[in-house]
Design brief:
elongated; 2 domains; binds guanosine-5'-diphosphate; binds magnesium ion; alpha/beta; Four Helix Bundle (Hemerythrin (Met), subunit A); eight-stranded mixed β-sheet; 11 helices; 296 residues
């Protein structure tokens, strides 16, 4: 699945682990978006573990590396995962979906909608991407596939749509409201201000909301993804991430870099991984499984 696997496959099949082997490992981790500081820390730990466990064959080191990365990623794993636990079903749970253009926001909303419905929850969608008519239509298509209603407005702004949608969700007694937004870069100040306003309006319409502020991150954006998460988190206080497009050429290491960057202090959890364009192509994130997939 991941690009990393191809490079590492031969490393873990070689018959010795000398200095050149460690260097080759270091290089493939860096090439897989794990990032330099994270890679160096992993390599140091791996060398230590190899020494203390007296492990030298590639399979033993592979197992140690999988353990190490699982430990590194573990703080990003939500326990429990809010995809499956919904605290209070008497008021709508509001999920605000944000991120750059083309990251997979609208697609992920379609997948989330399906997942929540499969848990017997009633879902309402809100077309907060008011910049393009095509964006509204795209969300309506996902609504149609899931047979759920989509709250839209002609010419309204995102805050107005969100406000309207919350009142609809309350009066319909919907369990979950998912609000789509237009893509933006964290460097576009006025657009970030708009998102802050959307968040404020949501909180006024329903105290405690949004319950989730999710950044959708394209798994192919590499080290740039790291800056995206930092900037969106600083501006909006993310509760979680969904990392998409991990079915393609993504190298997948960016999640390791995230874990390293956020090792101290509050951090968004990785709720799920997008692994395709289809409605069911969403997998909950667990550290151990992800580490296994990276190195197996
Ligand atoms: N391969 C793959 N494609 C995805 C995934 N998620 C979204 N896409 C595709 O990425 C493109 C942009 O997705 P979209 O949801 O419109 O992004 P948005 O601009 O953030 O709303 C579309 O062609 C989607 O089908 C994924 O997990 N894997
Ligand atoms: Mg969209």
């Amino acid at each position: 699945m991941f690009g990393l696997r191809k490079t590492l496959g031969s490393l873990f099949k070689s018959n010795q682990t000398d200095e050149a082997w460690f260097e080759a490992l270091e290089e493939s981790l860096i090439l897989s978006d794990v990032g330099l500081p994270t890679t160096q820390q992993l390599i140091i730990k791996l060398r230590k573990a190899a020494k203390s466990e007296k492990a030298s064959n590639p399979e033993a080191l592979q197992a140690l590396l999988i353990d190490e990365v699982a430990t590194l990623l573990s703080p990003l794993e939500p326990k429990p995962n809010p995809l499956y636990i919904h605290a209070d079903m008497n008021v709508p749970e509001v999920w605000l979906i944000i991120g750059v253009n083309g990251a997979g926001k609208t697609t992920t909303i379609g997948k989330l909608c399906r997942l929540f419905q499969s848990q017997g929850k009633s879902v309402l969608l809100a077309a907060g991407d008011t910049f393009r008519a095509a964006a509204r239509n795209q969300l309506q298509e996902w609504g149609g596939r899931n047979q759920v209603d989509v709250i839209t407005q002609e010419g309204g702004d995102a805050a107005a749509v969100a406000h309207d949608a919350i009142h609809s969700a309350i009066s319909r007694k919907s369990n979950i409201l998912i609000i789509d937004t237009a893509g933006r870069l964290a460097t576009q100040d006025h657009l970030m201000e708009e998102l802050k306003k959307v968040k404020r309006v949501i909180g006024k319409a329903l105290p405690g909301a949004p319950h989730q502020t999710l950044l959708i991150l394209d798994g192919n954006t590499g080290q740039n993804g790291l800056s995206q998460v930092k900037a969106f988190h600083a501006a909006l206080g993310l509760t979680g991430l969904v990392v998409t497009k991990l079915d393609g050429t993504a190298k997948g290491g960016v999640i390791c870099a995230l874990a390293h960057t956020f090792q101290n202090g509050p951090k968004p959890a990785v709720l799920a991984l997008g692994k395709g364009e289809g409605i069911d192509d969403l997998t909950p994130f667990t550290a151990r499984q992800y580490s296994n997939e990276l190195f197996n």
